[in-house]
Amino acid sequence: MIMEGDPFVLIEGMTIAGLAVGATQGYIYLRIEYPHAKIALNQAIDAAYARGYLGENIQNSGKTFHLEVRSGAGAYICGEETSLLESLEGKRGLVRFKPPLPAIVGLFGKPTIVNNVISLASVPIILDKGGEYYRDYGMGRSRGTLPIQIAGNIKHPGLFEAAFGITLREILYTYGGGSASGRPIRAVQVGGPLGAYVHEGQFDTPLDYEAFAAMQAVLGHGGIVVHDDTSNMADMARYAMEFCVEESCGKCTPCRIGSTRGVEVIDKIVNNIEKDKNTVLLRDLCNTMTFGSLCAMGGMTPFPVLSALNHFPEDFGLSKDKA
Ligand code: SF4
């Protein structure tokens, strides 16, 4: 939304960040699936160069900052900062061991800061209007605004920006207009494909990083996918494991092997094969993935799986006490 709608705010934020850390080269790493963003960004970068806001001696300041867009081939794992750097270097997107942190040894061995669009796009307004202005939006330690994407089974899907603190219920019913099917909303997945499933009893939780962490969920990038009461949450748990199978970079065992075993174990549970034993095994596997994975891909896959199992055991053919 930001890259397509206001690419200059990202360019300005990156230029300020570059000048702040003494960097003279910036890259916008963009998945190939966003052709409109690529066009908008490249046009804006060309305009910025033409007006002296990028390049050598920016606005006669003696400062230099160059910026270019690089297309990624569409790997989810390249959102992880070290595999993003590998990909930028022209290699396969494989997660690096840390340390060293990218701020010490990053792109082509040089110190590199890696930030997401929302962080960098927030910089110009903070410098323009001051930290207090920005702080006045939001709640708790979650300050400012978040672009929220609402999709799935919802009457009014789309993108909108709101201050932290708005509740899920307001988003779902005031902005989203309820489910598209007209049926009750049963669960929403917040924060992307590795986000937890949140049930109806949690819809009054405000959008706040700490409040979500307290209920073993994540806010992530603010993506919300809505399910009505016809969705089977065991299928969704299986989908999360399958997603990890597809998108795992393969570097570490808990994620590479664990996700494949996870699909198999969920299949056994729903097919009544040693149900109790396999439920214990699934929890044990999720624990290994959470604490043994090298990055958040394997580490967070248990979020949707366990939230589905904990909140909707009946979809796995389990009673609450057996889940
Ligand atoms: S958790 Fe998965 S994606 Fe991350 S390093 Fe391990 S194998 Fe790669």
What does this structure look like?
By secondary structure, this protein is α/β, with parallel strands linked by helices. It has 3 domains: 2-129, Rossmann fold, CATH 3.40.50.11540; 138-228, Ubiquitin-like (UB roll) (Roll); 233-316, de novo design (two linked rop proteins) (Up-down Bundle). The protein is 44% helix and 15% strand. It contains 13 helices and 9 strands. It has helices at residues 2-5, 7-21, 35-50, 81-88, 117-129, 131-135, 168-175, 209-214, 233-247, 253-270, 275-292, 296-300, 302-311, and strands spanning 25-31, 66-72, 138-139, 142-143, 145-152, 158-163, 185-190, 197-199, 223-228. The protein has a 5-stranded mixed sheet with strand order 6-5-9-7-8. A two-stranded parallel sheet has the order 1-2. β7 and β8 (197-199) form a beta hairpin. The protein is globular. The mean pLDDT is 96. Iron/sulfur cluster (SF4) binds at residues 77, 95, 248-252, 255-256, 293-295, 297-298.
Give the end-to-end Cα distance, rounded to a whole number of Å. Answer: 40 Å
The level of helicity is 40-55%
Low-confidence stretches: none
> CATH-wise, what's the superfamily of the largest domain?
NADH-ubiquinone oxidoreductase 51kDa subunit
Q: Report the C-alpha radius of gyration, rounded.
A: 22 Å
| Structural class assignment | alpha/beta
Q: Secondary-structure element order, as H and E?
A: HHEHEHHHEEEEHEEHEHHHHH
Q: DSSP helix count?
A: 13
Brief summary of the model shown:
With 323 residues, this protein is of the alpha/beta class. It has helices spanning 2-5, 7-21, 35-50, 81-88, 117-129, 131-135, 168-175, 209-214, 233-247, 253-270, 275-292, 296-300, 302-311; strands at 25-31, 66-72, 138-139, 142-143, 145-152, 158-163, 185-190, 197-199, 223-228.
